[in-house]
Amino acid sequence: MIPFWALVRKDLRLFFNDRRAVVVGLLVPIVLASFFGYLFGGQGGKTETSRMPVLVTDQDGSAISRAIIAQLSSDKNLDVKLSTADEARLQVRKGKARAAIVIPKDFGADAGRAFFAGAKKPEISLLYDPSHGMEMGMVQGILSGAVMQAVSKEMFSGQSGREMVKESLAQIEKNSQMTPTEKKSLRDLLGSVEKWNEQQANEPASGRDVPAGGLTIPFETHEEAITSGTEDKYNSYAHAFGGMGIQFILFMGLDVGVRLLLLRQSGLWQRLRAAPLSRSMLLGSRAVSAALISGFILFVLFTFARLAFGVRIQGSVLGFLGVCAAFSLMTAAFGLLIAALGKTVEATRGYAVMATLIMVMLGGSWVPTMFFPQWMQKLTVVIPTRWAMDGLDGMTWRGLGLSEALLPIAVLLLFTLLFGVLAVMSFRWEADG
Amino acid sequence: MLEVKALKKAYEKIVAVDGVSLRAGSAETIGLLGPNGAGKTTTVSMIAGLFPPDSGEVLIDGSPLRGDTDPIKRKIGLVPQNIALYDELTALDNLTFLGALYDLHGTVLKRAIAEALDLVGLADRAKDKVRTFSGGMKRRLNLAAALLHDPQILLLDEPTVGVDPQSRNAIFDNLETLKKRGKTLVYTTHYMEEAERLCDRIIIIDNGKVIANDTLNGLHRMLPVTNLLAIELEGPDGFKPESLLALPEVVSAEVREGTLRVGLHNLTTGAPAILRWLAESGYPYQHVTSERPDLETVFLTLTGRNLRDS
After folding, report:
1. Which of A45, A130, A290, B180 gets the highest tally of CB atoms within 10 A of its CB?
2. Which residues of chain A lie closer than 8 angstroms to B89, CB-CB?
3. Number of H helices and number of E strands within chain A?
4. The complex's ipTM?
């Protein structure tokens, strides 16, 4: 075992000898992970959400449109400002506003008619920035609630509501297509509404527990982030540091492969091959040293994340170590595969960088896979980094137990085996150059 | 004792080594001389066990070399043509690592490193990083690295490429010391002067084949001439050397770098006739020297090409 450990020691020494590269290699993922962690919500203690800038154009000026605007402005998710239609369109195009709501002329009256008599529904224009498509759904939801509340309130208790009921009652009498039974039912309904409106006008419901605010969504939500099952809040730094760790360790694996390619072109390779060493020792020692370096990088990143951002392993520590070890071995095998399949250093580096970035991207290192479309989430199970990310997330902020780490560990080890076997089978042992 | 029998190696359709055989005993230096691409490095690589030959075998003390982990490999030390050291590590760290590859450790390894560094005169630079070494020092350390496990056979693949004359002489001195210690040296080079100075036997290789295998004197005996007359012409332009072939005793004539080189059977009778002919034909000359033909001439005679131009 003396030669084996000499080979491992030499690789570690070469890695740590280049102190500047080590510092940069650790500093860059720390900076990026800190940035992404902050961007995706920080340590969970963050209560203020950034309000979405939305412009509203009121071309109606009715009580209903004013009520809608008041309702939108009171929402904690929106930063509402009034604007003209042209300005609103321009600001959305420039990306200064995420969306603009244009309430057309006569909206209040048309909405009232549509509310009781099934007349043609008026349209509210919703202009949005297509790069924020996901936020569009949220604006639509908030707008629907605001319109429903404002229109129903006005219909049941406002001046225009009383006029609208009278108008609707007159239209029912003229309607020749309705049966007498249908007419009677509608007359009764609108008559009750008319009576209610008159009662509200004569003795307002102030101070009494009477529902006078129009129709509202009949529930409220209680939001709770489910993390480790304890009272710990979600810490997005855990995911960010895991993701960046995976990315930069893969780059380190890539470097292992390229260095091996370069080594094969040097006299050192001849010297190593001249010594009585088995091929498995030559490749195995390199895999072990790469895995140790990977483990070191993960250790430094998560230690920093713990100290600076309070990232904790809320699940199984053993599971966490297992995922780290399995991913480190997978990276080492990935590096050997690069060396085995590579021909020229330049071309190999290009292909390997591309493969690494794809693995990182589809594995959820940059953006969690939950943001991926469903089909893509299913597809990415063939990407080893996806399993590493799931394993690290599971053992850190999700707080899952050892049993939940076993599948990611097993899959990562299978990838290690696959890459390792392919590397050994296709490795060219004769020196290049 | 190193014995190589009919080694062959081809890369697809290109035959790199074609039936090379050689024998080398203790305290003997064998030179593999040939132009670049002749098959010298491939031959040495197969002897070192870097890859197996397509056919033929390598015997070390009568035992064939088999597989990557064959303990016989410990009897071989390889000095690769390229510097085989880690620039980022110190000389000591390099040697410690390379010695460990042969299972050396502890005091045995320390002693081996000290002896190797002493031999190549780098003991005082042991703790310096290799990247601070000159080219010649790196070459000497490259040699030292192959000596740590005290191999019986030392394979030296062009070990003086790109070094200054001083370092080259230092390496030659080291090799002579090793030879005196009874080591078998196999030395590849395309510098005929090195082969002439160091080697007991010289094997000339061209296009993967052995075209001569003899002592220096033996190789000279293969030549059709025993003497060379070198005449520095004042104006060699337009001179046709083949016109000298009509003179008695003249076997060959060529102009190389302004110097007329004439091969003769008999210097005593041939030289005056040539000089007289040149004077009478209007070709004045400055300097005249005579010498024994070198390996360049041997190569030229055997292949019809110059060694350096190949």
Report:
1. A290
2. 10, 13-14, 17
3. 16, 4
4. 0.81
